[in-house]
Task: inverse folding
């Protein structure tokens, strides 16, 4: 699972400190974040995603960045599983295998 910081406010010092704390102390916290925005509240009120409502907004860009980061993490973990399976099939009598199960976010 991944932790995604939300309601980030770049203009507030406390917001930056909280984001930094999460990224340093919460396992699997994404480097990307979702900022607080009026546009996202308007999208919710209209029953739309921010990407549908304001696709060129900074908040929509935030969502795209988070999704891209999570996809990269999933792909890295799949690569690790594939490498582990390859090790097993290449060395069926070997009893010790090393695999990175954390991906790039750990």
Result:
């Amino acid at each position: 699972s991944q932790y995604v910081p939300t309601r980030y406010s770049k203009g507030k010092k406390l917001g930056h400190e909280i984001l930094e704390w999460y990224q340093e102390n919460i396992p699997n916290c994404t480097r990307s974040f979702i900022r607080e925005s009026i546009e996202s509240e308007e999208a919710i009120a209209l029953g739309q995603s921010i990407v549908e409502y304001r696709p060129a907004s900074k908040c929509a860009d935030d969502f795209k960045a988070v999704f891209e980061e999570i996809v990269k993490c999933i792909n890295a973990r799949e690569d690790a599983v594939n490498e582990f399976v390859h090790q097993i099939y290449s060395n069926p009598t070997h009893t010790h295998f090393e695999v990175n199960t954390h991906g790039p976010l750990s």
